[in-house]
Every structure is written in structure tokens, then in C-alpha cells.
Specification:
There is one protein chain. By secondary structure, this protein is α/β, with parallel strands linked by helices. 34% of the residues lie in helices and 14% in strands. It contains 13 helices and 14 strands. The protein has a seven-stranded mixed β-sheet with strand order 1-9-8-5-4-2-3, with helices on both faces. A three-stranded antiparallel β-sheet has the order 12-13-14. Helix 2 runs antiparallel to helix 9. The longest helix is centred in the last third of the chain and has 19 residues. It starts with 28 loop residues before the first helix and ends with a helix. Bound molecules: pyridoxal-5'-phosphate. Pyridoxal-5'-phosphate binds next to helix 4.
Length: 398
């Protein structure tokens, strides 16, 4: 197989992650071995040529401007991101979780149910609770590991206000049937695009399909800031105006609270300036991510492990995930080869200690099946060919 052209990190630090504590680390044997890994799961200190200078220039531009929140960079980012996605409105907020919560609040339903998947990290569960809505879990399609019209259909009743579909691991699934179902039942469809920024199906970007869509710019996401950030996009002018009020204390005009449930949730000017620059590289970086996954797919062919493919533009390869019946063993083999791995996500939402008492629904067989078998491998644009080779060597032996 052809080598993928490398993206030339100017400061290659294969051991870089060893010096930084892992944000989510529990001191298990595996996270310790991840921190000694030769191939890290991600390394945000690697840059493409000129990126470091661009970041410094962006920050200096903001510092010199005297505008630190909701200034010209933020307005320009909202405009440019909406144009990039092909939607009418973009509303910057402080995080992806806020984007989910505020989009649910923008529905203006005092109570109701949100139907979502239980395999997507719990963000929608947390946001729905914060918005005062209850949650019902639908199972996922075994191929896409995303919701589908078939899995959502049995969960719909009069109480349902919205379906939140998460484009898991970077896959924008075909939403045509699900969207039609939601529309016919008067239920809002909200896309969680936190892992799928830039994905495109039938010429339309993720975020342009639902009534609203939530994005996260957490640093490890495909479009990442230098801190937290998020956005909600929509083609609906009334959702747009509700969102603009809700992110700003619920104000209609200054000091006049028009909408209850408002918050302070702002994307700051420095993050907006950085995101404007990085947006220009997003498609190229997503291609590079797909090429990494293609190498893994090829290496695992004929073995007992299935690498979830990321072939067309509808997949932006946020994570490279394999599905294997022998996860503990496979994880051990990667650890021996000093390749970092992770599980996204080990505990489905309906099994989470804080939520499980509320779960009264039936079983979620595909969700449970996948939670025991998925394993995430290193995947980011600046992985080197040598690092990819090392991962592939382990895959070939499975
Ligand atoms: C990261 C993520 C979020 C939350 O984004 P934050 O910016 O960390 O709040 C929501 N949904 C999904 C699917 C995510 O991956």
C-alpha cells in the first residue's frame, strides 16, 4: 500500500505525551502504559508548518484589538462557519455541552423527553438533564453505531420533544429516513456534530440536516480551539434568536430578560480568532485522518479485528476504532508494543451510576455489545508514518 504523504510536524515529539498528565487518567495499569507509549493517542503539541506563528498572530490580533468577548473575530467566525457548513445561522457558545443544552432549551419545552443513544459519552444525557428534560435511550445500528429511524421509531410517543443523533467517531449517517420520521411526528431533530465537524454527505455538511446542530471545539476535536468552545447552527430564524438570547442571560435587549432559562455561555474572542484560521485547514486535516484509518483497515484485513472504515467524505475519522471480541487481550498487545489505546466509551449512559436508576426502558443489545468490544487506536493528522507502521504491525498479528 502506498505511503500517505506525511504532514511534517515541525517539532516531532514521539514521547511528548509522557511529560503531560492525561486529563482523564485514572491510575490504572493501562493508563500508565499509555503515558509511556511510543505512539500516543493524540499529541496536540505537534503543528503543521507555520501553525505556531499563525496561532501567536491570532492571539496578538485579539490582544491588540481590546475586544475580548463577542467582538469582530467572534462575529466573523459565526459568519464563516455558517458559510462553511451551508447553514443560515451560527451561534457561538462556550462548549459542546452548552451547545447541546442551549439547543434543547431553545425548543422552549418546559418538560418532555429527549431520545438519544447511550453509547456516545453521556454529553446529551447531561445536557438534557440540565435543560430539565428527561432522557430515553434508543439502541444503535450495529454497523454505524449511530441511531437510525428503525431504532428511534419504537421510542417515539407524545412526550418526545427531540431526538439527538450523535455522529459517533466522525460518521455522518444517512439521516433522510430519520429526519422524515421526526418531521412526521412533530419532533425536533438535533445533530450532535462534536465528532464530525466537516463531514459531508450528498454535498451537505454535518449540521445542515437537523433542526439544530451542536458543535464542540474542545482541543482534541477535528476543529479544536486552544481551550473550550462550541456552537449551535440552524436554518431556523426563531431558534437562532432564542439561542442568541439564551447564551446571554436570556436578554432581549440589555438588562431585559426576555427568555427564562438563559445562561452565560460565550465563545471568547481568542478562540474565535484561532478557529477562523484552523477552519481553513479542516478539510485537509480530515483527509489525513481518513488516510490513517485506511492504513489500519488494510492491516487488519483477514484478522479477527474489524476496523470501522472511514472512507468517504461522510466520515471525518475523529477516532480510529476497532471492534474485537478479545478486547482485553488486544489492548494488552498494543500496550506491549507501546501503542496507546482508549475505550470510547466503556460505560453506556443507562449504566452510569448517576443515571441508571432512571432507566426503565427495555434492553439495548447493540449498545451493550459494542461497549464491550470497541477499542480506540491513535489517530490524528500529525501521526508519522513510522508510528502508523507500528500500529499496523500489531493489527496484522491479531
Ligand atoms: C466532546 C463531545 C461533546 C462535548 O463537548 P465539550 O466541548 O467537551 O463540552 C458532546 N458530544 C460529543 C459526541 C462529544 O464528543
Amino acid at each position: 500500500m502506498e505511503r500517505i504523504p506525511s504532514t511534517y510536524p515541525d517539532r516531532l515529539r514521539p514521547n511528548g505525551s509522557a511529560r503531560r498528565p492525561n486529563r482523564k487518567s485514572r491510575m490504572t495499569e493501562l493508563t500508565q502504559s499509555n503515558s509511556r507509549a511510543l505512539v500516543p493517542l493524540n499529541d496536540l503539541s505537534r503543528r503543521y508548518p507555520g501553525e505556531a506563528e499563525m496561532l501567536v498572530a491570532s492571539v496578538e490580533r485579539v490582544v491588540g484589538s481590546g475586544w475580548y468577548v463577542h467582538g469582530p473575530e467572534h462575529a466573523a467566525f459565526e459568519q464563516e462557519f455558517a458559510t462553511f457548513l451551508g447553514v443560515d445561522h451560527c451561534v457561538g457558545v462556550a462548549s459542546g455541552t452548552d451547545a447541546l443544552e442551549l439547543s434543547l432549551r431553545a425548543l422552549r419545552r418546559a418538560h418532555g423527553t429527549v431520545v438519544t443513544a447511550a453509547n456516545a459519552g453521556g454529553y446529551t444525557s447531561i445536557a438534557a438533564r440540565a435543560a430539565g428534560l428527561s432522557v430515553r435511550y434508543a439502541d444503535v445500528n450495529p454497523d454505524s453505531l449511530c441511531l437510525s429511524a428503525e431504532t428511534v421509531f419504537p421510542c417515539l410517543d407524545q412526550s418526545v420533544a427531540a431526538v439527538v443523533v450523535t455522529h459517533l467517531y466522525g460518521l455522518l449517517p444517512d439521516l433522510k429516513v430519520l429526519h422524515g420520521l421526526c418531521r412526521s411526528r412533530g419532533v425536533a431533530l438535533i445533530e450532535d456534530c462534536a465528532q464530525a465537524t466537516g463531514a459531508k454527505r450528498h454535498g451537505r455538511r454535518a449540521g445542515a440536516f437537523g433542526d439544530m446542530a451542536a458543535f464542540s471545539f474542545y482541543p482534541t476535536k477535528n476543529l479544536g480551539a486552544l481551550g473550550d468552545g462550541g456552537a449551535v447552527v440552524t436554518n431556523d430564524a426563531s431558534y437562532d434568536s432564542a439561542l442568541r438570547a439564551l447564551r446571554h442571560y436570556g436578554w432581549g435587549e440589555r438588562y431585559v430578560v426576555k427568555l427564562a432559562g438563559g445562561r452565560n455561555s460565550r465563545l471568547d474572542e481568542i478562540q474565535a480568532a484561532v478557529l477562523r484560521e484552523r477552519l481553513k485547514f479542516l478539510d485537509a486535516q480530515n483527509s489525513r485522518r481518513r488516510a490513517v484509518v485506511a492504513r489500519y483497515v488494510e492491516a487488519a484485513a483477514g484478522t479477527g479485528a474489524r476496523v470501522l472504515p472511514a472512507t468517504g467524505t461522510e466520515h471525518v475519522a475523529h477516532l480510529a476504532v476497532i471492534v474485537t471480541d478479545k478486547r482485553d487481550h488486544v489492548r494488552h498487545l498494543f500496550s506491549e508494543a507501546r501503542v496507546a489505546t482508549e475505550v470510547h466509551y466503556p460505560i453506556p449512559d443507562h449504566r452510569q451510576p448517576a443515571f441508571r436508576s432512571e432507566f426503565t426502558g427495555g434492553t439495548l443489545p447493540e449498545t451493550e455489545h459494542a461497549a464491550k468490544r470497541v477499542l480506540t487506536l491513535p489517530c490524528f493528522p500529525n501521526l508519522t508514518d513510522e508510528e502508523i507502521d507500528r500500529v499496523c504491525e500489531v493489527l496484522r498479528g491479531l
